[in-house]
Design goal:
Structural class of chain B: mainly alpha
Strand content of chain B: 5-15%
Largest interface: A-B, 61 and 38 residues
Shape of chain B: flat
Order of helices and strands of chain B: HHHEE
Oligomer: heterodimer
Shape of chain A: elongated
CATH topology of the domain at 7-43 in chain B: Histone, subunit A
Distance between the termini of chain B: 38 Å
Number of helices of chain A: 15
CATH architecture of the domain at 7-43 in chain B: Orthogonal Bundle
Largest sheet of chain B: 2 strands, antiparallel
């Protein structure tokens, strides 16, 4: 693979979670009954007038400022014409040669700890399209002679962010998308749920001989619904292109569809002729000319961005870079971390709980961190109870599992499950004496110098106590009696 | 003198199937419209910048406040066909858009 260099650029679409749509007052809400959030504007009825949502414009300016873009002093909406029933107007209101945000970059942290700077070409404002179901909703997907359309999503504010072809590996592209998602989440402009389509990503990828300056023929890949899919699709496509070139074939410029189950990209076998979208200025919407005072006011609302936050966690709180990276990757973890530290818990311990045990359990359960029941008090209590020996590390994990299910208070769960460790010397001493009496052979060998048998004896004490013994104290008592 | 126009291309973009007679008639009519539009370009002096807008306004926004949508019935009332609360349209030929 080293003889070939991969060149990747990403186009990401972000649905803003404003209260209303981009050009009309219909609610912007996921999951409503079909065609209940529609009006003459988003259904494209003749004579209706689209008027831009001020909050959506404010948010795209915020995104542009966070990415270091220039906010254009004047920009236009254009009509992008195409025949597809997902837009009832037969065009989408988008932007063309005069987008709101021009240029910019995103500093991306790679898994190996190095950073790279990915250029942003442009960020522009447009509207989302309706949702098409092929065949009737009750089945008949194959050979369907009709399609059903729900226009609730038509007209939802959509931001398109186009990167420069600056990425050189699938891992770098995934890191870019993670950083973009974390940035958008920190900006509080979108709920960035890839599985619900509020963050979507298409990739352009080509390969060229290492050292070459000329770009190879690029292929566009669509339909990647997670960061993992993006990485897998790019790996597959890179290998496919290299294999084709090494076999003396040429790459066809086309759009390919990622098939998650097959683990392969497939040609969509379409567009013989390039699309002619006949962009022209949207005559119903006057130009955008954001005043510099307004832009500065928006700049003043920028929160701490993920990169600065990682640096602060490393330098001020002593977190390791990889821990800081995992913590900052999503806002739910960051918020839980910050709020738990704010009520007095030790940062490193909190970071470990949040990025390891909690993240692992959420991952297993397939739960989004934002939907978790775990509150700062839960984490702080767990850390405190483990530190003072009230519960064991293993016990704490059981408690956390139950917090995830019920949201109950930690001490309540500890009592309900009888997880309080026996730390009373008298009670534990009895169990220790019993184990010593039951294990004469092990005791003998330990006394003869086989130190590692202490672990076995502690294990026996734990077992006899039904897991409730404080292992540290058990060990101390054993050593005391056997030395 | 009418401006020449590629009627075949325009028809293809508009998904219209035209007879040779219709093509010839539209070629002349569209050519005259373009000729008329070209005259505006001749009349505008160098001190008139090109624009797509008749009135000089900018930043016309609406606040992010919900307004009532159409009722479900009203929304679908103009649909030639509907099924399961959705607009029903002929099978979509994949265009890759």
């Amino acid at each position: 693979m080293s003889e070939w260099e991969t060149v990747i650029g990403l186009e990401c679409h972000v649905e803003l979670d404003t209260r209303t749509k981009m050009f009309c007052g219909c609610p912007n809400e996921f999951g409503a009954e079909p065609n209940t959030h529609v009006c003459p504007v988003c259904l494209g009825h003749p004579g209706s007038l689209p008027v831009p949502n001020e909050e959506a414009i404010r948010r795209i300016v915020k995104i542009g400022l966070a990415l270091g873009s220039e906010i254009a002093p004047r920009s236009l909406f254009h009509r992008k014409n195409y025949f597809y029933p997902d837009m009832p107007k037969n065009y989408q209101i988008s932007q063309f040669d005069l987008p709101i945000c021009v240029g910019g970059h995103l500093e991306v942290e790679l898994p190996d700890g190095t950073t790279s700077r990915v250029g942003i070409t442009r960020v522009h404002m447009e509207e989302d399209t309706g949702k098409t179901t092929h065949g009737s909703a009750s089945g008949r997907i194959h050979d369907a002679d009709s399609a059903l359309i729900d226009y609730n999503r038509a007209g939802v504010p959509l931001v398109e962010c186009v990167s420069e072809p600056d990425m050189r590996s699938p891992e770098e592209a995934a890191a870019y998308l993670r950083e973009l998602r974390a940035t958008l989440e920190a900006l509080d402009v979108s709920d960035v749920r890839m599985e619900e389509g509020s963050l979507r990503c298409d990739a352009n990828i080509s390969v060229r001989p290492s050292g070459s300056d000329a770009l190879g023929t690029k292929v566009e890949i669509k339909n990647m619904n997670s960061i993992r899919s993006l990485e897998r699709a790019l790996h597959f496509e890179r290998e496919r292109q290299v294999a084709a070139l090494e076999a003396g074939e040429s790459i066809v410029q086309e759009t390919r569809h990622w098939d998650e189950d097959a683990g392969a990209t497939k040609s969509m076998r379409s567009k013989e002729e390039a699309f002619d979208y006949r962009y022209f200025p949207e005559p119903d919407i006057p130009p955008l000319a954001p005043a510099s005072g307004w832009i500065e006011e928006i700049r003043g609302t920028l929160p701490e961005l993920p990169r600065a936050r990682r640096a602060r966690y490393e330098s001020d709180m002593g977190l390791r870079p990889e821990v800081a990276r995992v913590l900052v990757a999503n806002r739910a973890s960051t918020d839980l971390f910050e709020r738990t530290v704010a009520i007095g818990a030790e940062p490193k311990a909190v970071a470990n709980w949040v990025t390891q045990d909690l993240a692992g359990l959420l991952n297993e359960a397939g739960t989004d961190a934002r939907d978790s029941r775990v509150a700062p008090e839960h984490v702080a209590d767990l850390i405190r109870l483990v530190a003072d020996g009230t519960i064991s590390g293993a016990g704490a994990k059981q408690v956390l599992e139950e917090v995830l299910e019920t949201g109950d208070e930690v001490e309540m769960i500890v009592d309900r499950r009888s997880l309080r460790q026996v730390s009373d010397e008298g009670a534990l001493g009895e169990i220790v004496d019993m184990v010593i009496a039951e294990q004469p052979e092990a005791v003998e060998k330990l006394r003869a110098g086989k130190q590692e048998l202490i672990g076995f004896l502690v294990g026996q004490v734990m077992k006899s106590s039904g897991g409730s013994a404080n292992p540290k104290l058990a060990r101390e008592l054993l050593l005391e009696r056997l030395s | 003198m009418p401006v020449e126009i590629d009627v075949d291309r325009v028809a293809r973009l508009a998904r219209l199937e035209l007879t040779p007679e219709e093509k010839e008639r539209l070629r002349l009519q569209l050519g005259l419209i373009l000729e008329h539009a070209a005259k505006v370009g001749e009349a505008a002096a160098d001190d008139v910048p090109p624009t797509a807008y008749a009135i000089a306004r900018a930043n016309v926004f609406r606040p992010d406040v919900p307004e009532p949508s159409l009722t479900h019935e009203a929304a679908l009332s103009n649909a030639p066909e509907a099924e399961e609360g959705r607009f029903k349209v002929p099978r979509i030929v994949e265009t890759g858009s």
